[in-house]
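Hey, can you fold this?
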Amino acid sequence: MIAAIKRNENKVFTSSDMARRMDRISDAFGLKDQTDDSFIRNLPFMAEDATAGAENEFQAAVAGKRENIDLARVIETSNYYRNLVEQARTGETPQRRVVALERLLKDKDGKDWENSWVWFPRRVLNRFANQVFNEDLKADKSISASEYRRDAACFVFEKNGENQVRVPVSYLLKLALADVIGDNFGVPKPIKAWGEKMLAHFSNDNSSPELFSFYPVKSNDSGRLGGKLAGETLMRFLLTQALVAYAGHKFELNENGQKVKVFFSATPPGDQKRLNDLISDAFYRELFMSPCLSGWDRGEDKKEYMSVCHKVLSRSQINAVTQLKEAGIINSNLVVLPNTSNISLANNGTHISLGSLKLSRFMADPGSGFTALDEKYTGDLGIKIWEHFLPLFATTYSAAPHRLDFQSFHPERVLGFMPHELTHTHLRMIWRRWKKKAHLKIMGKSLTPFGPVWLDRLIANIFWLKGDFVPDGRLIDYFTSVMSTFQSPALNGSLESEADLKKDLTEMGVFDGRMALYQLVRLRKYYQMGYSGFEHRYFSVFEDVVRDMGKAADLQVLITALAQKYIYSRQVNHAMIPDTPDVESERRQIFFCTAIGVPTFFVKTRTRNQFLAKILKNTAKTRHSRRYAGYTRVLVHEYQRALISLIQTEAPDLISALNCESILDDLDNRVNAPKTHAAWGRITQGILDGSGKHKPMSMPGRQFNANAEQYYGQTLRKAHVRQGFDLLGTAFEQIDLWARYRDPSSGQALGQILGSQDMLKFLKSMRQDFIDETCAPETLKKFIYLMVLVISRDMKSWHNA
């Protein structure tokens, strides 16, 4: 009984509690009794206070003949494959399963094998790279005498009488950097020292390579940091391309028929989905889950954690079928059961994290009066405010255009994890509008696929049912944000809210208490992360990293500062945005409608969400719904315009202080002319270029999605490389003066790398060869040294700040 009372006290804040807490926090920050101008300057996340970093998830592929590719070799030599063949021979398993798997392997021959590992002779690694590899094979890297992991034998094998190493591409990048900086022949000391610090940033826990910022960027006195963050991201991307090229030569990958590519691509590859439909969940994990060699002291434990995530997500998608039936979306027992293996962890996105130096400083000082509970209380409220602005970001700054054919339009497939993210009411509304958007009707009667693929294709051909086009397929195929329960809201400001919700969801079979709570915007707690701020997890692919990612980050800072203004000026409190599943779902549905391209959504006319009501009060072209009594019909486009108007009306002081006038002008163009200015429009045009088609719906889904994969891996990858070179040229101009006159050790390193050769001339001479992938190995090594030197300057500035 006492425990229950304590738990409830931890959850409920009265109006007087809120007022007293905010008084105390404002006192701690020096925000009470300030002039308007001083109040704005002292808010967290304002000019010179905001910091940002990014984690980028890349798509990796290895092109080559079937006999040279690790993924094909592992499948063909596995007991799983052999047992399947034997079961088919004895009639225990349908022969078509073996035929389908064999056809897939044949189709991939000579093409890209997404997320395959690579193999190479161990002798090609120099002493330092070997040392790094051996260290990462330890069961516990914090113990110098630790034994090897139990699965250490998975990363080595023998071929042609020679020891070979086999690792995922994510780890290949780290080994390549270790090999470059570990060269015994004249590696400059600063390059070696800073290169070793960079190794820890090559870390991944999902299928694809992940790389997080080498250093946070900081807003200047004008408040803008987006350009810096985009530049830092492009430098990491360009370094990644150089390491791929270096490994191709030095590790004899090219010689052994393995061509590695790393690029931005958000949705799981079509052929990997195909393979997932043919194998078990356990075998899928064996083939694709990261071994977590880098980034964690106990990598094997982290690998097991990722297996838990995959099992839970696979179970959750099956549980979603029951939710759809309870929601009335599935009205019979005729369903296409999802595979027991879920592929959503192969989604790739970019996470942008914003930090506040002020909040972090106050959290570090026990005498500041700002506690972990205060951080959670204000952070949760900031997130609730923030979620109303998410429709400004989905599809506008990043996107993952995707085509769905009619035969794919089973609700249990296309609605993904939304049954666990939205209430049944909003789920039904979205599904009805989505079917209308996709024109899934025959003679006025709504129709979805029956199940047998041959029948669905026949119906689609006879009645010209083409399916649909989705501006951002990643956001509907990934568990972006779990929904709170009635007893355990996630964002009510109490310290135990997340743990309580995870417990409830675990009991419901939706989640696992060991997993991090999935949220679109996640609080970064000082005692966990070393800084206080927010992680934004909804970005897919940036068509132009500077134009899209940079401006998105600047807008994030502005909206975060606006949320702080609302909180500390007492304009918005927790009670105004109730912590109930229906209110939570009501605001998040708008985000999903934006990602799908559904043009309208419905809100209770007397919604209890006062902040949402405030936005809707100034939203044009709303009307009472004729279908849903007590609801108001709202256009997504008009809601977006109302958000822009709200920012302009209520934050002119912030806009001026953060120099964001041009950011809002750009946002206005993205919202009002999406086909030419929004990310989804530009990426879609890039996918269609050269196809002879002008609209996504004029192309079969499988062809459009295949064209998209080719566009990401070829056209867009090279465009991002060119962007990186443009920025690097500017950086070379700056570092040449800096190295020669302000940092003698860097000047000496520059002389060791290039001798008397000019940096800019070197860059110009090798740029096209690099883009054409014909750079000589020695040139690549020099280029990597120079990139480490350029990046180290900013790393050093951050560490010395």
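Oh, and this one too while you're at it.
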Amino acid sequence: MTTAQELPSLLQQALAQHQAGQLEVAQQLYQQLLQANPADPDALHFLGLLTCQTGEAGLGIALMRRSIVACPNAVYYNNLGNALRDHGELLKAIDSYRQAVTLQPDYPEAHNNLGNALREAHQPHDALKSCTHALTLRPGYAQAYNNLGNALKDLGDLDAAAQAYRQALASWPDYADAHHNLGNVLLALDLPDAAIESYRCATVLNPASAQMHNSLGTTLVARGQLAAAIETLTRALQLDPDDAHTHNNLGSALRDVGQIEAAVAAFEQAIALSPDFAEAYSNLASVLRRQEKFAAAIAAGRKALELNPSLVDAYNTLGNAYVGLEEFSAALEIYHQALALDPEHADVHHNLAIVLLKSERAEEALESAHIALTRKDGMAQGHVNLGDILRCLGDLDGAISSYRHALERDPDVDSTHTSLLFCQATRATATPQAYLADARRFGELVAQRARPWPHTLPDHEPELRPLRIGFVSGDLRRHPVGIFLESVLAAMNPAQVTLIAYATVSNEDSLTQRLKCHFAAWHTLSGMSDEAASRKIYEDRIDVLVDLSGHTSSNRLGVFAWRPAPVQLSWLGFFASTGVAAMDYMLGDIHVLPENEASHFVEKPWRLPCSYLCFTPPDDLLEVSAAPLLHNGYVTYGCFGKLSKVTDDVIAVWSRVLHAVPDSRLLLKAHELSSASAQRKMQVRFAAHGIEADRLLLEQGAPRSEYLAAYHRVDVMLSPFPYPGGTTTAEGLWMGVPVLALKGERFVTHICESVLHGAGQAAWIAQDREAYVAKAAAVASVAGREALVSLRAALRHQVLSSPLCDAPRFARHLEQAFHDMWAQYMNQSRVNA
């Protein structure tokens, strides 16, 4: 039996055990006190607190209420308020805090707790008053400053909120919550680096807080510090594995570092934990699109919009997925829906511009690209996009300027260097030296990232064995590379070479299927890092690795910097130096690689006999027609190349031809001429040189069979300069139409010359502009027309029997080149050993 004298001591023991976390012992002591005095207010109250702590909030609150009935005081009301707030009874908690400050107006903790509860009840003005009162009663009260900052943040006064959090930290430097809240406000003030510093302090002070780790990790993702973000978010998930938002944020970081499979898993886990998480569905759609799983990406994007019809990013991602399927009309509709919700969204304007460009609506694309950059000038990709559009419109100087702006903002993007170099290589005013300087900068960039693979000589290398030849290309399809490659591959001798393909994209067509049968193995590098791709090639024991892209889209020149093969060369797909020091050779012929131009390359020139190209004739069984001048009564000139090749300089020379032959016509056929505005613009450009619109026949592009039939309406093809036609030249000759070229001064300008030499048509190469105009005009004379009619009838046979179409002969030359390159490597390696 407990005596009255023992009760105060027993209460002190109970409180001590309670504070020490010995809850079972404290509970027994409180109950012992109540056995002695069932109305003991302290025993009732603190047993109620303990009961709430052990998860029986209802019973604990009831005990606390009994204590207040027995002895109403401010402390009891304050503690009851805390219990009610923790139990989700916010309004009752506010009433309890009010009772506390009524009974004891100078009670700073109760005023602070009241302010915190009022903020949670969305009453920030009243919260502000209560926290201010608490600070009046206790200057330097850190928790009150923290809650004051929260109220100010809710009221939108971010600067004042930041100052309140700083005052909290001045009183209590190790206050983790204040560091975290300060980070939130700094982020809202667009001070992400300062926010990261605050978040780091919070996670150090409270390493068990998943929320704080998540805030830090999310901000690191936004700042591009992805490795640190992944580490931090992984830690957050270790602390709270069921937080869907953290899984979503981790997925974003994994996506941005290229760990696509892991990102998919993270987004799927976020959705499993929160099936209505629209942002996670949108993010899942973005990575599925990168995996080229376009149908699945569309389904995920649609689900995101079903859950949140106002989620603009989901519209953007959905539109991108339709672009992947080349369903441009659907993509345009989606992007316009997004802009109806957010007319200022830079990324949507950016993607809209890309689709308009792909839809051959370049002038509209230009407007969207400018809007995107107005909204988000720091977006490097926006400047790239603008450059692509300007290039399509023929403004190479403007395009180059845009690409340089992009590189100023993000100098490490290979594709931007490629776009710049492509323009530099085809610009009339660019010198080979200026191009090479830019190419070398790209080469240095990829070399800095690479760690070349080791190559050792075998102990017993056979004198003659099939060399393992790897071809790296994104154009193993109906593309000039595929067209020029097909007949050569079919003629290659398996006893001399074993061919392995490394496709850099997954897009395939009927020509891809025909090409595949000529390779011993076919691998896709799409989605692989340069290191992983180079490891694959290295482990395949490739002897000679051939780049078929140069600085064109989908190239993987960065892989070559790792030197996965002992011998590496560039051929066929480009017309200038790659700039990559690890590229040993540039494969060409005496026409595109004359001796006096060797200084244009970091690679060593390697010249094939006759021609560096071998044309595969079309499958279409189109006959050569009679010369159209016979029924038209006038000469029709033509050009079927990209409109960007038709520069103002070219138009000036072609206008001279049309003036020299007054009744002649010029047929231009290009995809870019699909709109009436584009055609009017072309008419205006010729009108500046006195050429009437009725002299021009302007047509949009067409499928290949229809396109080839258009040669039936042309007497002479005019090759543009400095970027002439290669495939169009060969196709024109095959269709019986001679092609007039202007002699150039660097690789790209020599392409048409090489084709004409290979086809035995070197007489159609003009040495300068005067000769170009004279040769074009000469066909209109009586003798010229007779010669043109005779040549047309014989030209296809001449082409088919020329080196340009002699695939077996070309294949022997190519095999020999590979073996000679290998022999040089072996000899040099032995000397160095």
